[in-house]
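pasting for ref. prot 1 ->
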Amino acid sequence: MEYNAENWDLMVLEISKRFKVTADFDFMLFLIGIQELGQGMKPYERQEKMDLINLGKCTLLSEQGYLEAGGRDEEGWPQFKEVKSLKSLTPSFMNHLLKRAAYDYLKVQLQ
């Protein structure tokens, strides 16, 4: 299935059912962050949740060629460096880019 609004909504619904939550875009990014951190589902503090959402974004931007993974810090968190300017992306294009990449990432994870 290719990314489009209908397929995105179906994926959000599937994830909502699977995790017994009302999933939104940030929750999808949160799941990607958890997957990439590799420490599994557990209770996270508010700041950790925000960091996991950011990790999800960075992972997707890395897959799109805007960031490059650069190892892990002393706490085991992946590090990234910018290789293509993000400043040139409009917020709406960035959102579209991230949604499409999240769809592709999660489609593989859900199989």
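and prot 2 ->
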Amino acid sequence: MTILCWNVRGLGNPRTFRALRYLLRDKNPDVIFLSETKKTIQQMAGVSAQLGAIGQFSVSRNGRAGGLALLWRHGVKVSIRSFSSGHIDAMIEGVTQNCFRFTGFYGNPDLASRKHSWELLHRLADGYSGPWVVGGDFNEVLELNEYLGRRYRPASQMRDFGMALEDCGLTSMKYKGYKYTWTNNRSGDDRVQLRLDRGVANTAFFLAFPGAIIHHVNSLVSNHLPVFIHFGGSESVRWA
């Protein structure tokens, strides 16, 4: 089982679409969570068909911004639990022996509204004890070593994120690849790099999938790196 999480910064760019199609063929994920698609529900249905997904669920953009999508290939069974402009929550089964919960998450890019993202995470966690993994662009870092740049970042922002994860029983997964998953694409002293994209999981998930790990994959078409949640094993089915 592999889950791709990627902030694509809009799927209207042909280069981005080609890069996504290449990732599907090269990495063969079972499930894809995309944020900032900047597509309507109807438009995402067309994108999903072009990619060869057997199933899809999307949240429409808000104006020209936002938009989320969850896509999956043949052999994967997905049951949507809830959704909003900041998440898609689902139960997934059919590829691994264990049914598990996956939440595609998009932290509010507006700092003043970030607290609402952590409140959402608390609501999603309430009373749930089964295997659960959350992946996506959280729009926040956990500690200073996930930040590179001269701009000041208040410790309270990182503390609020860390406390939200702790309260929800979620821990960051280990990763391989380049440390920072986002850049502002500037040079010199103005360049900032952050680890905004990650996967976090609860104890039940780590017990069910002890070999799970995150891979950060290079990208030339978005200022966010795609992140792959690997459960172990491989499948022969390929995307169209």
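Residues 2-230 form a domain with the Deoxyribonuclease I; Chain A fold (CATH 3.60.10.10).
The chain has a mean pLDDT of 93.
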